[in-house]
Amino acid sequence: MHIQALPLTPEAFAPFGDVLEATGDFRLINEGLCRRHHDRALIDVADARPGISIFLAEPRALPYDFSLIERHPEGSQAFLPMHQNPFLVIVSKGPEATPQAFLTNGAQGINLHRGVWHGVLTPLHAPGLFAVVDRIGTTPNLEEFSYPRPFTVRAPE
Amino acid sequence: MHIQALPLTPEAFAPFGDVLEATGDFRLINEGLCRRHHDRALIDVADARPGISIFLAEPRALPYDFSLIERHPEGSQAFLPMHQNPFLVIVSKGPEATPQAFLTNGAQGINLHRGVWHGVLTPLHAPGLFAVVDRIGTTPNLEEFSYPRPFTVRAPE
C-alpha cells in the first residue's frame, strides 16, 4: 500500500507531537541580534531524566518501504537535525491505523509526544546527523509492531 | 587585544562544557542502521525544568569584536546547530580571565555547563538556526559582564 508524504506542518502533526522551527512568536535577545522561539517542545519523561544524545543514521531514499513502527511509552523524543536537509517522519495513531508520512522543509525538528507510534529515524541525505532529546533511564521504554504487509512512502507530488 | 580561535575539541572545552558530536562510543539501533551516541550532555537546571527553544541569530564575521560575556547561574545551555556550518564559541573562566574562542567543525554542538561565562550566540553563516536546550523558569538566570576593552577574535591560522 502506498502512502503519500505530506509537507510537515504544526497543524497536521499536532496529534503526534511538536514541530520545532523558527516561526511564530519570539523574544529578541542579545541586543536584538537573536530571536528566541521559546519552549517549543513538550518534554515528558517518566521516572527518569531527559538527556541529549547524538544519532548518526544511514540515509534512505524515496520511495521507502517499511513495515515496522515503534513507540516509547515512558518518554517523548525530539529529533533535531544537525543539517538543512529534509527528512522523512512516519507516525501512526496505532497498529490498527494506516501510518502517515511527513517531509520536513530543511529547517524543522520534531518532538514526538510520549507513547506516539513512529517509524525509525529516516534521513534522506548524508550525513544523517541528529541531536536527540529523550528519556535517559534504565527501565524498558520500547514497544515495536510490524504491519503484516509493508507500506511504501512516495515523495510529495 | 587579539584572541586566536582554536578548533573545538572535547579536551580543550572540558572546563566549560560538553562537545556534542558523533564520535566515540555508540550503540547500534534500528537494525544496525543508526548509531546512538548516548547521553552526551550534563543537563543541570535548578528549580525549573529543561526545554527546547529555537534560536535564529544574525550571522557574524571574523575578525569579530566583543566585550560582553554572560552566564546563567541557574542552568546549563546546549546549542545544537540545525546546519553544517562552523560557529564561533567564546567562553571565559570569569571576568578576571582572558576569554577563549573555539570554532566548531560543522558537525558539533555544545553544552555550556551551569554558570559558565560565555559570549552570545555567534553563527558565521546564514541561517543562524539552533535548537537550544536550557532552563525554562520564571526566576532570574542571567548575569552580564563587559570587559573594559574589546577583544578581537581572529580565524584559526
From TrEMBL, chains A, B:
Keywords, sorted A to Z: Hydrolase, Lyase, Purine metabolism
GO MF, any single term: ureidoglycolate hydrolase activity
Catalysed reaction equations from the record: (S)-ureidoglycolate = urea + glyoxylate
UniProt xrefs under SUPFAM superfamilies: RmlC-like cupins (SSF51182)
Keyword tRNA-binding part of the UniProt annotation: no
InterPro entries according to UniProt: RmlC_Cupin_sf, UAH_cupin, Ureidogly_lyase, Ureidoglycolate_lyase_dom_sf
Keyword Flavoprotein appears in the UniProt entry: no
GO terms under biological process: allantoin catabolic process; purine nucleobase metabolic process
Gene3D superfamilies the UniProt entry points to: Ureidoglycolate hydrolase (2.60.120.480)
PANTHER family attached to this UniProt entry: UREIDOGLYCOLATE HYDROLASE, UREIDOGLYCOLATE LYASE
Subunit structure: Homodimer.
Protein name (record): Ureidoglycolate hydrolase
Originating species: Stagnihabitans tardus
